[in-house]
């Protein structure tokens, strides 16, 4: 019996897959079997495994200064350098950054910043957040309340009502459209639903709208053209912030530097983690517009302190590794390379649209999902929702690690350093697995 309480695991199915080491885009299990890491760990190991520069950077920083904190005015150079480099890259005006440890705690921080800001400007009732159905924003009490997946809420007494999280439609045309509805009618209908929700609740009570530009763990939903422009028009009309959760999308994943740029969004707030350090060490960033920060300065002085901070906020080793990661992205043109390979990947994956099990292929850049269906014409899903896990296992048996998401979709998110030849290898293993599943079920 295990001594570990495993995260996001069926407790009856622990310790089945023992990963021992990694090299480039490959990992090896404890029996020496080799796998292509088609999900970059959990959507995060952008520079792959065994990157010598990141390893040396961590080691050198540990030798120089393994730890110092940032409470009460303490600072250190590597956090300052990281913040400057990072904020200069971001599509957020005069960006300011708060460092944390994970995507979940960074989203919690954003909620607190929202409350603090609207208190500071004398609008304490403007605090509700609109999140979408089928969204993933983390698992802490607050971030799981934003998440729109029942598996992260049922059994945990979530969402917390006091947080005032409101729900609006997922922008998934393939599953959400009504019979005969065009993409543009679908967009108009769901954005109208959003506006009606705002009017019903009262615009003065709503602070922000949170969205992953392209979703990850909730099924890799790429909204139809025009969706975000219409959403932004509505948000601007009622002075509601656009909060982009770029925990997966950020840093070259979707064909551009940030998902907000890929999808034409101008965010007021942005959450970053995962590829910020290529996952070599935990670090996250809650980013807000500069004028929001300016408005909180007096408030913090009045209260004596901005009463929020983690022991590991701005951890020097995490900052050093993140800074080196950003330098490598820039020096080696990683985002441009990933965009080119990503286009090749999307084309190769779309060849599978003809396969009898494939309902929809969706994605951008090096992020994608393939939805498996029982009937292509009617889009009927497989009963019981076990097909995704079954396919995930079939892929694993063929040396490919992918992840079942939203029950019946298989997600791909390989390291950004993957080559076209390795994409071919990945697609080959996936096609073989699909054919084996087809043989098994017919
Ligand atoms: N937001 C998004 C979009 C994510 O995909 C995730 C994790 O997958 C999180 C937040 C939570 O991040 P973490 O698992 O680091 O807490």
TrEMBL record:
Coiled coil: none annotated. One of its GO terms (molecular function) is adenosylmethionine-8-amino-7-oxononanoate transaminase activity. Its cofactor is pyridoxal 5'-phosphate. It comes from the Bacteria. InterPro entries: Aminotrans_3, Aminotrans_3_PPA_site, PyrdxlP-dep_Trfase, PyrdxlP-dep_Trfase_major, PyrdxlP-dep_Trfase_small. Keywords: Aminotransferase, Pyridoxal phosphate, Transferase. One of its GO terms (biological process) is biotin biosynthetic process. Belongs to the class-III pyridoxal-phosphate-dependent aminotransferase family. NCBIfam families: PRK06105.1. This is Aspartate aminotransferase family protein. It comes from Oceanicoccus sagamiensis.
């Amino acid at each position: 019996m295990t001594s570990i309480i495993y995260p996001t695991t069926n407790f009856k199915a622990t310790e089945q897959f023992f990963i021992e080491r990694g090299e480039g885009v490959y990992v090896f299990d404890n029996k020496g079997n080799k796998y292509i890491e088609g999900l970059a760990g959990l959507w995060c190991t952008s520079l792959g495994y065994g990157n010598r520069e990141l390893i040396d950077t961590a080691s050198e920083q540990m030798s120089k200064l393994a730890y110092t904190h940032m409470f009460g005015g303490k600072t250190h150079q590597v956090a300052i350098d990281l913040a400057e480099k990072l904020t200069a890259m971001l599509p957020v005006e005069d960006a300011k950054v708060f460092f944390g440890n994970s995507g979940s705690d960074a989203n919690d921080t954003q909620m607190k910043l929202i409350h603090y800001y609207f208190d500071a400007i004398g609008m304490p009732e403007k605090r509700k957040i609109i999140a979408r159905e089928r969204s993933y924003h983390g698992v802490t009490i607050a971030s799981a309340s934003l998440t729109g997946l029942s598996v992260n809420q049922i059994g945990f007494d979530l969402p917390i009502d006091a947080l005032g999280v409101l729900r609006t439609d997922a922008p998934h045309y393939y599953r959400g459209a009504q019979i005969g509805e065009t993409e543009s009618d679908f967009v108009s209908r769901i954005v109208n639903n959003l506006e009606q929700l705002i009017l019903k609740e009262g615009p003065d009570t709503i602070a922000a709208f949170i969205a992953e530009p392209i979703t990850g763990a909730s099924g890799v939903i790429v909204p139809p053209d025009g969706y975000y422009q219409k959403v932004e028009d509505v948000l601007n009309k009622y002075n509601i912030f656009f909060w982009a959760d770029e925990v997966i999308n950020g840093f070259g994943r979707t064909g551009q530097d940030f998902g907000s740029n890929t999808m034409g969004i101008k965010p007021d707030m942005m959450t970053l983690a995962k590829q910020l350090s290529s996952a070599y060490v935990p670090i996250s960033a809650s980013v807000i517009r500069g004028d929001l920060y300016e408005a909180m300065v007096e408030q913090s002085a009045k209260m004596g302190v901005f009463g929020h901070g983690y022991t590991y906020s701005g951890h020097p080793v995490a900052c050093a590794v993140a800074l080196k990661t950003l330098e490598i992205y820039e020096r080696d043109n990683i985002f441009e390379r990933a965009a080119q390979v990503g286009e090749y990947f999307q084309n190769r994956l779309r060849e599978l649209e003809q396969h009898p099990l494939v309902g929809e292929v969706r994605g951008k850049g090096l992020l994608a999902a393939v939805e498996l269906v029982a009937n292509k014409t009617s889009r009927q899903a497989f009963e019981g929702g076990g097909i995704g896990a079954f396919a995930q296992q079939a892929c694993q048996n063929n040396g490919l690690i992918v992840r079942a998401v939203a029950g019946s979709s298989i997600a791909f998110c390989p390291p950004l350093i993957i080559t076209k030849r390795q994409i071919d290898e990945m697609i080959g293993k996936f096609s073989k697995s699909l054919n084996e599943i087809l043989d098994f079920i017919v």
